[in-house]
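User: Batch of two.

Assistant: Item 1 of 2:
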Amino acid sequence: MQEYEQKIILTIDADKQIQQGVQTALPDRPVDFKFVDSAADAVVSLMVEAPHLVIACTEMPDGDGVAMIGNMRAMSPDIPLIILIGEPTREKVMAARAARPLDILLKPPDWERLASKVKARLWIDLELLRQKEEAAQQKAAKEGQKGKEQEPPPPPPEPPKPAFVEAVPKGAEVINVNDAIAGMKIARTLVHNEVVYGDKGQVLTDQMIKQLNRMGVPEICVYTDPALKRKAEERKKALLRQASAVATQQSSAGGGKVFTKVKRTAIRVETDIIGTYKSEDENGQPYESQCNIVDISAGGCALLTAERLRKDQVVFLTFILKDMQMENLRGVVRHSMARNAKPPDFPIRSGIFFDGITERDKERLFNKVFQIERENKQAEDKLRERFGYGPKRRRSTQ
C-alpha cells in the first residue's frame, strides 16, 4: 500500500459545516488541518503555518473576503488555492478568477470534486506514475525496433477535425433559466464564466435558480417531464396575472390605462424570425450569415445558425420583430450546442446575451416583447371564450 507524505491544508471559513466537510473529504490522506474563522488572521496564519494548499471563502464575518484573498495571493503568489463562494456576484467572481485558483466552487461545494482537486495537486500516485513510465519505455522500444527496419512512406495528412460542439444529452432539452423550476435535474455540469454552479445529476432548487438569474446565466440544459412542464407554465401564467393585477390597480387609481413593467425582464416569447448576423471567424476574417431567432427577451435570445459559434464570440444581429427594425444589435455567445434539426438548415443552437444594447433600444425591445406576450394571452382567452376549453373554464355540455 502506498504511503503518502503528510500535508498542511489551511481552511479560512467561519462556517463549521465547511470545516467539518473538509476534514471528512480526505479520509485516506495524511493531512494536518488548520482552520481560521476570521479575515484578520488569514494572512498571519498563511505566513506562520506555511500550508501546502489553502481553501478560502469570499464571505467572512469580520471583513472583506475578496480583499483577503487578494492579499494572500500577493503574499504567496504560487500557493495552490481553492475559492468557495456563498453568494455569487460579478465582483466576487472576477476577483476569484484574478487570484488564479485551482477551482471556484459554490457553497456547499461538491466534496468529491474538491477532494479530487486537492489529491491531484498535493500527492503523486506512484502506481499511475509507474504505468506511465512502462508505457513510455515500451513506446521507445517499438520506435527503436522500427528504426532498424525499412521505414514505410509517411501516411497522408489527416483532414482537420471539426471544432467540438457540446451536444444535448438524450432526453434533455435546453430551456431559458426563467422557465426553470425547482425539481428539474441538471443534464450537463453547469459552468458559467469558469464558475461551477451545478454538477450533472444535481436537482435544481429555488435558491440555485435565484443565483443563476443574478449572475446572468441565459439557458440551462435539464431533464424535464410533462408534470414539471405544466408546473412551469402555471408559474409563468401566475406571474402574468400578477402583472395584470398591478396594472389594473394603477389604472383605477390614476384613471387612465397603464401597462405595468412588473416582471417584464423575465418575459421571453417564442418567435420564428429570419435575420442576419455579422461576426469574425477564428482567423479574424469578417463574415455575414443567415440565422433564425426562435425566442427572445430584452436581455438575450436563442439563435439557430448553420455555422458553429465559439464561446464569447461577438455577433451583430439584424432582424425585424413585428414592425420594429433592430440593426447591428451586439451580443455575446454564452454557449453553443448541436441539435437534431430536420431539415438540418440550422443545426446549431446558441444562447446570446445582449451586452451592447442601448437603454433606448432596450426599452423598445421591452415594450415589443411585452406586447407580443399580451397579444398571445388575448388570443388564448378568445379561443377559450369561443370554444369553452382551457384551464380557466371547463367545456360546456349545454
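Item 2 of 2:
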Amino acid sequence: MRCSGLWQALKLSLLLLVFLLIPALSRGAEVILKGEVTAGGAPLYLSQLATVVGSPEEVKLLKQIPILNHLPLCSERTISKREIASKIALYLERNGLTVGDIEVKGPNRVVVKTPCSKVGGDSLSELIRSYIKENYPDFTVLYVPRITVQVPYSHYDQELRLVSIGNGYARFIYQVLVNGKVVKKVWIPVRIDRLEKVVVAAVLIPKGTKITPTMVKLASVPSRKAYNAFHSVKEVVGSIARTDILSGKIIRPTMLKPNFLVKRNMPVKVVYNSGPIHIELLGVALDNGVKGHIIRVKNISTGKVLRCRVVGEGLVEFLSE
C-alpha cells in the first residue's frame, strides 16, 4: 500500500512537471492564465481563470475543471500557476482522463476578486442630515455614526426610513436591496437637538461700543447652546459691549453692560405733562436707569422722593400716583 501511494504521488508530480515545463512549440492544449479576474462566487472553474486553446474536446474538458470550491464574497484570493497546474493534474488523474500535452502559460499567479461595493459612509451621513433639514427644519443633527456596509453586488438600491424622533435622538433604518430583496439592514441612532433663535453679533463689536440694531441679528442654534442667551434684538440694542464680541458670536448678558442714561447721584431734569400742564424741576437720581426704566428721583426743592421714568440722557418723566 505504501508503494502504491508513493507511485500515485510520483505520477502526479511528473504530470504537473509536464504541464509546467513542456516546450512552447509542442502540440497540445494550452492554458493561458489571466492576471486578474472577478468572479461571482464559488465554484470557480478553469474557464474563468484562463483562456483554453486546443481541440474542441480538450477545450470542453479543461474548461469545466473546478479550481476553487470556496470563495467568500467580498474577498480576494491569489492562486499560483503551480497550484492551478496541480488542480488540473489531480482532476484528470482522479477521473481517469487522458489528455495530450498541456502547457500552462501566463503570469505566475492569478488574483481572484469577488464583486464588492462599499455603501454608506459620508454619503449616508449627508443623506441623513439632508433628510432632517428638509423634513424637520426645527431640528439640527449633532452626530451621525459612520456606517459602512459591504455588499457583494455591483447593482443595488438603498432605502433610508425614519422610525422615531424625539428625546435628543432620531432613529433610522438603513437598508440595501438587490432586486427588491433586503440584503443588509442597519439601525442608525442619530443625535439631534431643537433649534432656537438667539441674538448673535452681525459684525465685530469692539469693547465699549454702544450696540445698534445693525450690529446684531437673530440666528438659529442648538438649544444646548442657547442657554442664558438673548432671544430678542431689543434686549441688547443700546447696551455697551463689555468686551470685544466677534461676528457670529452668541451674545450673553456677561458680555454687556447697561447704557445708563441716568446714573445714581446724577442731577436730572424732571418733567411732568398732563394736558396743558407742563412742569419742569430739578432732582437727583437715586438709582441707575436705562431708557424706559422706572427709578427714584429726589426733588431738590422739597426733598420728596418721586417715581420717574427715564426718557433720555439726564431726563426723567414724573409718574403721578
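The two ends are 126 Å apart (CA to CA).
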